[in-house]
Each structure stands twice: as structure tokens, then as C-alpha cells.
Amino acid sequence: MRTAYQYKLRPTKQQARDIDKWLSMLCAQYNYLLADRFNWYEQNRCPVNACPLICYLPELRDNPDYYGQKRTLPELKKTHPHYKEVYSDVLQDVVGRVKKTFERFLSGDSNGKRSGRPRFKSRERYRTFSYPRIKENCIVGGKITLPKLGAIKLILHRSIPAGFKVKTVSVTKKADGYYVTLSLEDLTVPTVKPDINPDSITGIDMGLKEFLTTSEGEPVAIPQHYRKAQKRLRVIQKRVSRRKKGSNRKRKAVKQLGKQHKKVADKRKDFHFKTAKQLLSKYDVVVHEDLNVKGLSRTRLAKSMHDAGWSSFLSILSNKAENAGLLVIAVNPKNTSQDCSSCGVKVPKKLHERWHSCQCGCSLDRDHNAAINIRNRALGHRVLKAQLMSDGIPGVAEKPTLYCTQSV
């Protein structure tokens, strides 16, 4: 199992200057390697029997693949000696980032989904570098030892769990300082809880009036962190727009704006983690709708949806459930708000109608009705049905499937 812990760094002034210098050099190298791949691609993407609109003879050279670009790094250190200050593994990791970015542009990810054309990064947009390998005892006495940067003080607000090993380290510069992210690995695999209680299953309906409503009728209020911070953000944004471009006052205003946005994001993330903990400490199985959040965020409700952060919350919920050996299941969202949870008859309602009333006598809140429908659909789900049937049978609880997104 892999997990990640993030801590805030307290570097000295010299260490902060070194980190900034590394980021600047790595950004330049990233853009150079990406441009090299684009040059080869533009000159060689036409087949031999086709004539391009711009006729020229392409340069006959090998495709600048991952290993070919790594072989150019020793020559880079000869022509630009200041790159010797950067740790070799960190410099090689830039080549890997370019490879991954360009391959997603050409052939797509593991699901075949292609990303847009990679962009060259400005210095302000390149904020992270990684150590692909690190010593096990890199953290001693509240300090982390990073090659060529030395021992840097960090705020160890929680200890690393027993049995986990530090595999990689990433250093990130954010609006309010420097952070280090540790990728931890444990060889043990969490298993699904063998004794799932059928009464400990809940459905949650995500909304914008309430953040979510459980099938027991318990609502969780939506905090609206961004909307509450809009007044302050508006003042700072106006200050940024009035500053002269390239001036120190403009730079300070931009930094202040970044801190305010990060404050809003941290509040939202804290709310998501606390809400996920409350659900998983009370229920063994949490069922939600398999929503197309990306599509819904293109509507007029985009600001409210981004403020709620549904996608981030569901990701946190599924990860925490997997680590705890619990289940999070996604079901088909079709007509969960329209169908009656008592008799199953479809009762059409517009979006502003917040109360469900059926001829069978069922009368309850619209979101509560939807949450009950979501829970009922999960009871027929093959993953949950197989888990409930396998209670008490040795070895069945060791199945690797912990989170399923197939629709019912």
C-alpha cells in the first residue's frame, strides 16, 4: 500500500536560495527537453509518401526518447557547469516528467484519455522537484537530510506509521513556504472488513443546499469557503490588477493573493477529511452516485460546485475507506431524485422543488429520498452482495477489489 505524508519545511536562508535556484534551472531544462521533443515531432510526423504544407528536409536524428534525453545530461553539465549543483537523480526526474507529459499528449493515459498539448512552464509555474530514491533514515531529530541540500528542519506534526518505508521525496514551493511530501510504502495489503453489518450501510446524496444528506436523513451543512472569502479576494485581486507589471509591489500583491487562495483550499480540504472520517467511523459501507462532476461543473452552478469540491471529497472518501478495509461504492445516478423510495414510482420534480411527495403517502425531503434510493441500489450491487454472502467464509475477505465504480 502506498500513501503520502506532507510536512512543512523550515529551511535556512541559504537553503531557500538553493531550492529556488534548483527550481529555476530545472524549469529551464524541462522547457528545453520539451522543445526538443516538439521539434522532432513537427519534422517527422508526416509519412514518407505525403507532402507537408511546408516543404523542408527534416533533420535526420533519432527520436528524443527517455533514454536518449538522459544521455544528454553529462554533456549538459560540461557546457553549463552550474547544473553540477543539482543532484543527479533530481535532474533525471525532469526527463521522466517530460516523457510522461508528452506520452499523454500523443497516446493518452492508461484509460486511453489524451491530454492537451503540453505547455512550456514559466518560472512561477514550476514549483516541485523530486528525489526518486532516498535513504530510509533520512528523517532524524526533526530534520530531513536531502542530498546536496543538507539537513532541513521540518515540522513533524505526525510520526511516520510503523512498517512504512520512505520511497520518494518531493519538495514543493507554495504561497506560504516550502513543503516536503513523503511517499510511503507498506508491503501489506488492506483487506475488506470480513464482518460487514447490513445495517451499517448508508447512501449519501451530494448537493449544493446541503453538502450531503445520508439515507438516515442526517444532513451535513455546506461550508461555502470560497463564497465567504470572495469579499477579501476581491480586494486583493483589485490590488494586483492596479500594480505595475514586473514591480516588487506587484510581486508582493500576487503572493498575498496566493496565500488567501491557499487558505480557502486548506479549509475545504480539512472539511473533506473530517466529513469522511465521520462517515467511515459510523458506517461500514458508503454508497454515492457515480456523478459526472466535470460535466456538471460546466453549467451555471459551476462556482458552487467547485466551492463544494465533490470530486476531491469522493477521492478522499474512497482512499480512507480502502485503508480502513471498508467499502465505497458508486451507483447509477439516473432518477435517484425522481423515483419514490417507497413504491418506486417516478415523481417528476424540477430543481427548485425540494420536497418529495408521492401518492403512496411517502413525504420527505428530496435529498433524503435520493439518499435512500442510492442505498437501495447498492444492496443489489454485485460487489456488496458478494461481500455480504461471503461473511464467515475463510479467505474470501482477501479479495483485492475495495472500490468499484461500475453502475448498477
UniProtKB/TrEMBL annotation:
Q: Where is this region: Disordered?
A: 241-261
Domain Probable transposase IS891/IS1136/IS1341, which positions?
Answer: 189-298
The Cas12f1-like TNB domain covers which part of the protein? 310-374
Report the residue ranges that make up the Transposase putative helix-turn-helix domain in this protein: 1-45
Classification via Pfam families: Cas12f1-like_TNB, HTH_OrfB_IS605, OrfB_IS605
Keywords, sorted A to Z: DNA recombination, DNA-binding, Metal-binding, Transposition, Zinc
Please indicate which superkingdom the organism of origin belongs to. Answer: Bacteria
Q: What InterPro entries does this protein map onto?
A: Cas12f1-like_TNB, RNA-guided_DNA_endo/Transpos, Transposase, Transposase_put_HTH
The family annotation for this protein states: In the N-terminal section; belongs to the transposase 2 family. In the C-terminal section; belongs to the transposase 35 family.
NCBIfam families membership = guided_TnpB, IS200/IS605 family accessory protein TnpB-like domain
PANTHER family recorded = RNA-GUIDED DNA ENDONUCLEASE INSQ-RELATED (PTHR30405:SF25), TRANSPOSASE (PTHR30405)
Protein name, as recorded: Transposase
Recorded source organism is: Brasilonema bromeliae SPC951
